[in-house]
Amino acid sequence: MSEPIKIDVWSDIACPWCYIGKRKFERGAAEFAQLGDGREVEVEYHSFELAPDTPVDFDGTEIDFLVKHKGMPADQVQQMLDRVTGIASDAGLEYDFGILQHTNTVKAHELLHLAKAEGKQLEMTERLLRAYFTEGRHVGRIEDLADLAVEVGLDRSAVVSALESGQYTQAVREDQATAQGYGIQGVPFFVIDGAYGVSGAQEAAAFTQVLEQVWTERASTEPVQA
Asked: Would you state the torsion angle of the CA atoms of residues 154, 156, 162, 165, taken in this order, to the nearest 10 degrees?
């Protein structure tokens, strides 16, 4: 049967639509897999920083950050966050912007590259997003990231050493350069089988449809076995 369909996902830990998009993609991929005949996907996450100039220890709430970052009035920001919280809830996620600790995410991205090297990237991505959006955990400081890494089975001392040394900083920059090459300006952004781009937190059915399209195209080009 065909190899798994490769999905490259550019996202940021501090992106609320990325977590929502992750859930919707997972549901779409599950529906695709249920169609049988060996349908599978292989997912890899790539680094994208929405606000790279954010300090590690931002002094203020998420509303404070967005008022400054987007130039919107506080009441409009609150309405926007309420809307996103509702959409997240529909996707099965419990966002709590009231306890969210806004921070720089570069070290979180470095951790995801370390986790990928250890075969734990998917688990680490889920853990960081849940920690940030639902638990109010800090995902910008090395010690806090190491605590979360241990929870998915990574070695704490190895994590601290890698993050302190910047071992994976270049890998983060390479992901960002690739995103720029693709023309990616917002996340989440899904590149499917190296050929199709899906932007934003689309509905599950949209992901199922494009995955099935790729599968069908593959089947039509595969040589007939004697």
From this structure: 170
The predicted-structure confidence for 124-181, as pLDDT tens digits, reads as follows 999 999 999 999 999 999 999 999 999 999 999 999 999 999 999 999 999 999 999 9
Alpha-carbon gap, residue 35 to 216, rounded angstroms: 12
Q: How far apart are the first and last CA of the chain?
A: 15
Dihedrals phi, psi of 192, to nearest 5 degrees: -105, 120
Structure tokens at 60: 């203020």
Q: Which two tokens stand for residue 90?
A: 């529909």
Contact between 131 and 137 (Cβ < 8 Å) = yes
User: Taking the model in full, what pTM does it have?
Assistant: 0.94
- Relative to beta strand 196-199, strand 189-192 is antiparallel
- Which residues are bridge partners to 88 per DSSP? none
